[in-house]
């Protein structure tokens, strides 16, 4: 059956029209889905009984609670959601990160990933499936702590801009007045920078943007991130320069720190040079590398990371180190992966 969540208002208007219902029914359905967060069509009490029956014959709400939950010693929770694909059931992972002043949900946009970054557990799965807007928004709607959430990051499994159409619909649902009415300032999309998707994101959306960089040197970055060959970081930065980040929209660069690879003064200085055109408006987030099986890369010492951060700040680069969360349950950055599903042929 088709799902109702994941529909935009325009799509709901087309749906009610196909059932010979007045246009205002679309807003009523949207309110039930995204404001009241119902789980059954029968709960939509201001819809005619006959229309609810018609909907029930063709649709479900589409809400699915996590099939498992893992809790870290630091309070982080990782949820496993089941997704029914044409190739059978698959799973995705979503992470809830509570802090003293905020609560962030890290959501997935794909099962697996095409980008094959050498340090990323998700990338080792290969690409399996693009999630629909319904499957993406369900991670938010079915989060056990939904009422506590203050921020959303598209930093889970997959490259969001490789699935831009469905991510775009999800962003519309999250931010529209008829939807969840979240401020775009509270939503961040993290990307390696695919050209077409990045342009669409910058032109069509108002959410915060985070660019994965990890090395300022093209050859070294290509070894870590093969996508550098198709979308060089210098071209990504040139694209970003065409847009205004002087207001409330924030631009950040994610820099995973690897021991003995990209954590020295030479890299810090090169990073400053490459980011110079954007320095008044961007910031750098340092992330300690989290070791994953089968990858010969090492985590840096806290002293090394702090030294790197201090140097960047001393040169006028706004830089912070992201505190590692959920590493003991494989919920930290780059560690998400489900291994039950096999790549479709």
From TrEMBL:
Where the record annotates domain Radical SAM core, the positions are 99-328
Its GO biological process annotations read: methylation
Catalytic activity reported? adenosine(37) in tRNA + 2 reduced [2Fe-2S]-[ferredoxin] + 2 S-adenosyl-L-methionine = 2-methyladenosine(37) in tRNA + 5'-deoxyadenosine + L-methionine + 2 oxidized [2Fe-2S]-[ferredoxin] + S-adenosyl-L-homocysteine; adenosine(2503) in 23S rRNA + 2 reduced [2Fe-2S]-[ferredoxin] + 2 S-adenosyl-L-methionine = 2-methyladenosine(2503) in 23S rRNA + 5'-deoxyadenosine + L-methionine + 2 oxidized [2Fe-2S]-[ferredoxin] + S-adenosyl-L-homocysteine
Which EC number applies? 2.1.1.192
UniProt: [4Fe-4S] cluster binding residues: 113, 117, 120
Q: Any idea which residues are catalytic in this one?
A: 93, 333
Single annotated GO MF? methyltransferase activity
Binding-site residues, S-adenosyl-L-methionine: 158-159, 190, 212-214, 290
Q: How is the cofactor bound?
A: Binds 1 [4Fe-4S] cluster. The cluster is coordinated with 3 cysteines and an exchangeable S-adenosyl-L-methionine.
Q: Which UniProt keywords apply?
A: 4Fe-4S, Cytoplasm, Disulfide bond, Iron, Iron-sulfur, Metal-binding, Methyltransferase, rRNA processing, S-adenosyl-L-methionine, Transferase, tRNA processing
One Pfam family of this protein, by short name?
Radical_SAM
Name the coenzymes or cofactors required: [4Fe-4S] cluster
Q: Which CDD domains match?
A: Radical_SAM (cd01335)
Keyword NADP listed? The answer is: no
- Establish whether keyword Oxidoreductase is in the entry: no
Mainly resides where?
A: cytoplasm
| Protein localization | Cytoplasm
Report the sequence similarity comment from the record: Belongs to the radical SAM superfamily. RlmN family.
The miscellaneous annotation reads: Reaction proceeds by a ping-pong mechanism involving intermediate methylation of a conserved cysteine residue.
Q: Which NCBIfam families match?
A: rRNA_mod_RlmN (TIGR00048)
Q: Function, please?
A: Specifically methylates position 2 of adenine 2503 in 23S rRNA and position 2 of adenine 37 in tRNAs.
Please give the name of this protein: Probable dual-specificity RNA methyltransferase RlmN
Q: Taxonomic lineage per UniProt?
A: Bacteria, Pseudomonadati, Bacteroidota, Bacteroidia, Bacteroidales
